[in-house]
Amino acid sequence: MGQEYTTYIAEKFLEEYRFTPVEKRLAFDAWADRLGCRADAKRRLWREVKSLSRRQAA
Description:
There is one protein chain. By secondary structure, this protein is mostly helical. It has helices at 3-17, 24-35, 39-57. The protein is globular. 12% of the residues are buried.
C-alpha cells in the first residue's frame, strides 16, 4: 500500500467519523476490518489517521 493511498484511506476515515462521538481507535478497527485490511496495514493506516488528525487540529 503506497503512501498516497494510505493518506487517502486515512482521510476517508476522518471524513466519516469527524463528528461521531465514538472512541476513534475502536471505530477505526471496525472500519478497517470492513475494508479487509491486514494487521500491518491497519497499524500503518492508524498512524496516518493520527498524523492527519493532529495536522487538522492545528
